[in-house]
């Protein structure tokens, strides 16, 4: 009896300790609260890489370029990752987005993400599993200052850290750290918890781009008094209790794992069975914007719970001789990466309220685009007539092969007797065009200079990817501000691949001879005259986009004071080139200043604006050979962005100017 009673007390103690551990470690920290969902700011995340992590791995983890990374000196081994931070509308928290590619064997997504990002990730879902190669969308902790400081650095407290040591290390006051984090007692900080370090300047030093590996982490200096405060519990817990507790705990863990596996397997089996019985039935569960089919339950035959090899009656047209290939019938030469989700026409029709005008987002080159809440997630649906099969298949072929943070993600498709539908991820902020041209009347705040440079860099990265980093290279052929979309964090994504063209290698570059398509004002001279579509054609169009970003003007401008049908129209490129001839350098740019968007209210670094204008000039050179490629454009814009961020940091001394800049972001 004595033994049983003692064992029960030990078991109770173990259970209590286990529950305490579970609730203190399994539930993630909460992001910083916010109220203004239009607020976007520059933030930094303090990350300590492991010794085997290369720069490329870190860029992929945080969706950044080398120019977005600075390093901490004095042997701390930290890197500071620059990210745009925004107030997420749904949760009213400051977060920034990224994607994580699973590099290990199958496991819990939560555990892999928490381990990889060392406490910087906000991922409430703790039950999903993923296999090697799967891509997980997630959010990272970030923060925006109320205006007292330029930046907030997200920092996870480690052993030996204290408010005093962090203040000394980052060159800030203890009061500022306590104010930002609401700390009443500076001695009462929690190891493993997230804190925000307020900064007036960019933390760290520029990353040495000639070094492919990140700085090797070294043990951080520890607080001499920390070890003295540790409590040794070993002398207070009997050895038998420890052995018994570990044994019971191991048994409980094994049982829990077995139970989870059984429940998940039975759920997948039940879903597969239900779809086989009723392939046309309505699908109730959510889909996810994922880039690897290994996430989906069951084999690759089921995409988001619906068999892809089923016959789609709505895809058969009685009036048109067209055949919409099913994902299962398209060979690897078409969809060698992912299979799109097949939606029914009824789902599309219902989710758009019968294509209600209230859900109409706009009109594209080959169809109208509607907002939809499809399977409980926001999407954009392009509605096309069945005669646009070529453009429909072009987008399907490209977007099922290429996946990048700066390209709009294709989710799936549907077909009816008369119409075709493409389903994309939803870009909450709309097109760049709506933010540049008369933004106030369209319900937008003017874009700040920093935001404009970031958008240009994002779009350049997307173009560089399809030009140089895909298995087969593509020319977009319709780059313009209305085809550059902005997500909730005001990060850019290139859309509308209906005119995209595969290009092959040739002696004089990558060339594809086609009929002239696209939008006037953005078309390169050689493309207009000979129909030669090259990557340099896209570079020309991107140069026009840069001129629009600087000036806020349309690509084609009507002569001022003339409203007749025969009014003279001039291209923005020709106007800006004439202006730049009178502004040979940044010190004599009075002519250029007259064409800078007045919505920026003179809140921009003149030298950076001039550099972007000169980059745009190079992009629209009549000779395609003299135009830079998109890799060179990305490098130039990265340097302009870094200089612009440094310029922004100098505004802290002028509170009135800085306040106006922050409101414009």
TrEMBL record:
The chain crosses the membrane at residues 239-263. GO terms for molecular function: ATP binding; protein serine/threonine kinase activity; transmembrane receptor protein kinase activity. ATP binds at residue 382. InterPro entries: CERK1/LYK3-like, Kinase-like_dom_sf, LysM, LysM_dom_sf, Prot_kinase_dom, Protein_kinase_ATP_BS, Ser-Thr/Tyr_kinase_cat_dom, Ser/Thr_kinase_AS. Keywords: ATP-binding, Cell membrane, Disulfide bond, Kinase, Membrane, Nucleotide-binding, Serine/threonine-protein kinase, Signal, Transferase, Transmembrane, Transmembrane helix. It is a single-pass membrane protein. The keyword NADP does not apply. SMART domains: LysM, S_TKc. SUPFAM superfamilies: LysM domain, Protein kinase-like (PK-like). Residues 153-197 form the LysM domain. Residues 1-26 form the signal peptide. One of its GO terms (biological process) is innate immune response. It is found in: Cell membrane. The keyword Kinase applies. It holds the Pfam family LysM. This is LysM domain receptor-like kinase 3. It comes from Abrus precatorius (Indian licorice). GO terms for cellular component: plasma membrane. Residues 355-642 form the Protein kinase domain.
């Amino acid at each position: 009896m004595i033994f049983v009673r003692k064992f029960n007390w030990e078991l109770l103690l173990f259970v209590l300790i286990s529950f305490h551990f579970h609730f203190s470690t399994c539930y993630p920290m909460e992001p910083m609260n916010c109220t203004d969902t239009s607020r976007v700011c520059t933030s930094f995340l303090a990350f300590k890489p492991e010794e085997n992590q290369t720069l490329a791995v870190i860029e992929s983890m945080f969706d950044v370029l080398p120019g977005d990374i600075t390093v901490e000196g004095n042997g701390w081994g930290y890197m500071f990752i620059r990210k745009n931070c925004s107030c997420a509308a749904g949760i009213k928290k400051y977060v920034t987005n990224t994607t994580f590619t699973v590099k290990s064997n199958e496991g819990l997504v939560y555990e892999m993400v928490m381990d990889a990002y060392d406490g910087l990730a906000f991922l409430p879902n703790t039950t999903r599993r993923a296999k090697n190669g799967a891509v997980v969308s997630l959010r990272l902790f970030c923060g925006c200052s109320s205006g007292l400081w330029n930046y907030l650095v997200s920092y996870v407290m480690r052993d030996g850290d204290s408010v005093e040591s962090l203040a000394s290390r980052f060159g800030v006051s203890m009061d500022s750290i306590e104010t930002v984090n609401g700390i009443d007692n500076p001695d009462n900080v929690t190891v493993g918890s997230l804190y925000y370090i307020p900064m007036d300047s960019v933390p760290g030093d520029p990353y040495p781009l000639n070094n492919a590996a990140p700085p090797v982490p070294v043990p951080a200096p520890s607080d001499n008094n920390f070890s003295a405060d540790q409590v040794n519990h070993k002398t207070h817990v009997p050895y038998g209790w420890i052995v018994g507790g570990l044994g019971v705990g191991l048994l409980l863990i094994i049982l829990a794992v077995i139970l989870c596996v059984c429940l998940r397997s039975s759920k997948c089996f039940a879903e597969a069975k239900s779809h086989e019985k009723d392939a046309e039935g309505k699908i109730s569960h959510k889909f996810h914007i994922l880039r690897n089919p290994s996430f989906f339950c069951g084999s690759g035959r089921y995409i988001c719970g619906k068999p892809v090899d089923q016959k789609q009656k709505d895809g058969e047209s009685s009036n048109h001789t067209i055949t919409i290939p099913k994902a299962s019938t398209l060979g690897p030469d078409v969809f060698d990466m992912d299979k799109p989700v097949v939606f029914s026409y009824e789902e599309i029709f219902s989710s758009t309220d019968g294509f209600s005008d209230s859900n109409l987002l706009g009109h594209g080159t080959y169809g109208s685009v509607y907002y939809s809440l499809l399977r409980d997630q926001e999407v954009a649906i392009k509605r096309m007539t069945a005669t646009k099969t070529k453009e429909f298949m072009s987008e399907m072929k490209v977007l099922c092969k290429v996946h990048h943070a700066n390209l709009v993600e294709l989710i799936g498709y549907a077909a009816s007797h008369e119409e075709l539908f493409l389903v994309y991820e939803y870009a909450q902020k709309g097109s760049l065009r709506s933010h540049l041209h008369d933004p106030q009347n369209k319900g937008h705040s003017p874009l700040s200079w920093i935001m404009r440079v970031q958008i240009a860099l994002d779009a350049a990265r997307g173009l560089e990817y399809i030009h140089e980093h895909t298995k087969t290279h593509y020319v977009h052929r319709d780059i313009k501000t209305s085809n550059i979309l902005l997500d909730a964090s005001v990060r850019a994504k290139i859309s509308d691949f209906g005119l995209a063209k595969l290009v092959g290698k040739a002696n004089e570059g990558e060339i594809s001879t086609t009929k002239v398509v696209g939008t006037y004002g953005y078309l390169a001279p050689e493309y207009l005259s000979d129909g030669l579509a090259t990557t340099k054609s896209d570079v020309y169009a991107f140069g026009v986009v840069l001129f629009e970003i600087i000036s806020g003007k349309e690509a084609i401008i009507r002569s001022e004071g003339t409203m007749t049908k025969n009014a003279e129209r001039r291209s923005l490129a020709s106007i800006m080139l004439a202006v730049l001839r009178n502004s040979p350098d940044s010190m004599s740019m009075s002519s250029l200043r007259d064409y800078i968007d007045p919505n920026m209210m003179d809140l921009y670094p003149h030298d950076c604006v001039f550099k972007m204008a000169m980059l745009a000039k190079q992009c629209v050179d009549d000779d395609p050979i003299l135009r830079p490629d998109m890799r060179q454009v990305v490098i130039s814009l990265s340097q302009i962005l870094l200089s612009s961020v440094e310029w922004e940091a100098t505004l802290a001394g002028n509170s009135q100017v800085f306040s106006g800049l922050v409101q414009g972001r």
